[in-house]
Amino acid sequence: MEENGDKDWESVIGEDGREYKVLAYVFPHGDETLRMVVSVNHRRKDHSAADPLHREAVIRSDGTMDTPAELAELEDRWLLPYRGMQVIQVRVSHQLTLLLDGDAQVDIESTATLTRGSLSAPDAEPVRLAPERQEVAPALALFGATLLSSVAFKSGALRLVFGTGMHLNVEPDPQYEAWSTCGPDDLRFVCLPGGGLSIFR
Question: Could you tell me whether strands 112-116 and 104-108 are parallel, antiparallel, or unpaired per DSSP bridges?
Answer without folding.
Answer: unpaired
